[in-house]
Design goal:
By secondary structure, the chain is an alpha/beta fold. The chain has six helices and four strands; from the N terminus they run E-H-E-H-H-E-H-E-H-H. Strands 2-1-3-4 form a four-stranded parallel sheet. This is Protein-tyrosine-phosphatase. Keywords: Arsenical resistance. It comes from Diaphorobacter nitroreducens.
Length: 165
């Protein structure tokens, strides 16, 4: 495979789980994948969650260029064509998505929101660490799939099967 597979991670606000997944896949991909993230309805002036950025940095993952953005950017003319779109929160999975150029494969990998609730930052930081670990485990499986499992005709099935791992 010479051209990387384009993967878009979606969540509602694009501040935590989808940002973690984007940064991790880009760090792990070895040129086989190119990742982005977006939200169905990011808040005005939404930024990546500081605790998410902190756990990425502590794990040695670059946070350069990470920003919260709307999924509309990826449905617009001139946007990169996605091969795979993965929702990482249950809210985004249930929403009506835009019509994606190229009709990419889709999958849902639900992860609990580490930023939810009013727990102290120390507890939320641990939740972010755990979420990062869970996402990394799933991405390890994805990037190590054999080439035939990443062909357009079987990519959706392959990605959806990883949801249970």
């Amino acid at each position: 495979m010479t051209t990387p597979l384009n993967v878009l991670f979606l969540c509602t606000h694009n501040s935590a789980r989808s940002i973690l997944a984007e940064a991790l896949l880009n760090a792990m991909a070895g040129g086989r994948f190119k990742a982005w993230s977006a939200g169905s309805s990011p808040r005005d002036n939404q930024q990546p969650h500081p605790l998410g950025l902190q756990v990425l940095q502590k794990a040695g993952v670059s946070t350069e260029g990470l920003r919260s953005k709307s999924w509309d950017e990826f449905a617009a003319p001139g946007a990169p064509t996605m091969d795979l779109i993965i929702t990482v929160c249950d809210n985004a999975a249930g929403e009506v998505c835009p019509i994606w150029p190229g009709h990419p494969a889709t999958a849902h990998w639900g992860f609990a929101d580490p930023s939810e609730g009013d727990a102290p930052d120390s507890e939320k930081l641990e939740a972010f660490r755990q979420t990062l670990h869970l996402i990394k485990r799933r991405l390890d499986l994805l990037i190590n799939l054999p080439a035939d499992k990443l062909e357009k005709a079987v990519l959706q099935t392959s990605a959806r099967e990883l949801a249970g791992k």
